[in-house]
Design a protein that fits this description.
Layout lengths: L13 E7 L5 E6 L2 E6 L2 H10 L13 E3 L51
Parallel strand pairs: 1-4
Antiparallel strand pairs: 1-2, 2-3
């Protein structure tokens, strides 16, 4: 097989990986297969490109930047972070006692549902 018959395989110099659910969310940046840093926005990607000597980078050019798990506008996780739940559901928590219509007079009073007021 000659070089002209083989499929063109090109790895762009910058690969921006998918969003990592953190506070704040970020995306890892790879150059030549090595993770070199984090980006919290497209401006961080541009700054990393400048550090590599790439001025006036075209973020839409797939020969320059490969976006994994979204495009240059994707900077928040697609799915909520596992294990983080809102507090106050399913029981008595802070600030719920007086508002929920519970009087606390009997043993079953703590399990009464919220009464809507008109």
């Amino acid at each position: 097989m000659t070089e002209s018959e083989s499929p063109r395989v090109h790895m762009p110099p910058i690969v921006v990986l998918g969003v990592q659910p953190n506070h704040p969310p970020f995306r890892l940046i790879e150059v030549a297969g090595e993770v070199i840093g984090k980006a919290h926005s497209v401006l961080d990607v541009i700054e990393i490109a400048r550090m590599l000597g790439m001025e006036d980078i075209d973020l839409d050019d797939p020969d320059v930047v490969r976006w994994v798990g979204g495009d240059k506008f994707t900077w928040t996780p697609l799915w909520p972070v596992a294990g983080k739940r809102r507090r106050g559901h399913g029981g008595r928590g802070e600030g719920e006692g007086g508002e929920s219509g519970e009087t606390g007079e009997g043993p079953g009073e703590a399990h009464r549902h919220h009464r809507w007021r008109s």
